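User: I'm new to structure prediction. If I give you an amino acid sequence, what do you actually give back? Let's try with this one:
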Amino acid sequence: MRHVISLTGRNLMSFGHSYYSIHRINGNAEIERDPFYTSDIVYSSSNPCWNNILLNNLYTKKYVNQIHINVWDAGLVPCKLFEIDINISELLYIEVDVWDIVFPYNSIVLNLVDGPYITPDTYKKIRNDLQYATLNSVLQFDTKLMFSTKNMIEMIEFSSKLEAYDNVFNTMRDKEEKRLQDKLFYNSRVREKNIKSERIAQLKLKLKRLNDDIESKNETFLTMKKKLSPRLETYRNSFVTILAMKVCY
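Assistant: Good question. You get back a string of structure tokens that encode the predicted 3D arrangement of the chain. For your 249 residues, that looks like this:
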């Protein structure tokens, strides 16, 4: 779409005031409702030459090959004159003066960087006039795209493919970055778990040492108790004997 300079209407069946709107045809062959470009109004002409397309008004910089054009009558109540689907790569170059050709009603001529182009349907309707005009013209008629336009279309298609590949690459890169982030997060959680496990192991070891110390002290206590038990029994018996003697006296 970037190499289309302007559009010209021929033999429009209107009251003289007209404009057009360009709509994108998406990948599902559906026509988008909102236009991405709307021309100015040309007054009092059934063969309007609309102003050049302002590329900075296009809502997208992506390559547009298939477009849908609505041509409107700009009366008090605007109404659609006709509509047409156009594939830019299928346009046919006409190397004659378009004003020497009698076009059918409601025709569109697209002015590209290297000259005027028409759709295959329009070419079929004016083939005889084109041949006659060619015989009387110093220019040679060729229905194929000019070399510069071919190169431009190929370059833009290649740029579009590169952009698509770039989008795929960016998507893969984002997925890889997310995978790495998830892996880093997982590694950090594993590291935290290992630190906690080491801390728990240290606490368990400390608890075991405390239990061993308590058992050791308990064994020492039992040993001392065993050694002191006979002596304590002797002291108890002596105390009982002395208490009995006091009672007797």
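You can read the tokens as a compact description of the fold. Here is one thing that stands out. The longest helix spans residues 147-248.
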